[in-house]
Amino acid sequence: MNIKSILTLAILFLFSIPMFSQENIKVDEIYLNDGSFIRGEIIEKVEDQYIRIKISGGNIVQFSMSEIKKVKQQKKNYQYFSNGNKVKTKGIYFSILGGMIIGKNYYKNFYGKSFNFSAGHNFNKNLGLGAGIGFDSYDPDVFSLFINARYAPWRRKVTPYLSGKIGYGRPISLSDENNFADYKGGLLLSPTLGFQFSSRSNNSLIMEVGYNFQRVKRSYDWEETEDNIVLRRLSATIGIQF
Question: 3-21+89-241 has which CATH code?
């Protein structure tokens, strides 16, 4: 079994995981009409009258229903912050990123497009593993299958993380008729530094800066040998994780 088959099976496995899973309830949030909110555990609720909630330190507070705008339940696989923002720390995630790659082609600056979609699983608040598909306009344009790992040393309102991709990239067009050249795919490597921004929704803004190493083989009609080329590109992308 070659690397393309392994990567394809990994992606199919990840996408076969149910998108919605049952999550354990942790604590509750009471949003008040004045714009503030209280976080704790509801210990008593009388419809159309009042709610009693136990907050940190074991103190119990009570609010009449007329003071309350809405009640939300927190989930164990999210980390919550004092401003009401949250970030997912465990379970399945999906991410979409788009941006540009920068490098040199034939001794001149080159700017291309970069897009990728990945699905993965956060095992805990630090480590996640996933797989995905990508497109990079290296000249030649390359379609890739990859697996990737993420490591976040801590969780903050803005969380830095390290990420790495390894996979296989294949030129979309295997022949360049203008230059009488043929191409073959090769190994893709990409170390990345990323930032995840917490929000009050289930989605997070993510930004990544990385460096791509893409191997391709090039041959010309008048030559019997193949050139082994490593395309090196700086990448800068932005997207969402959900």
Answer: 2.40.160.20
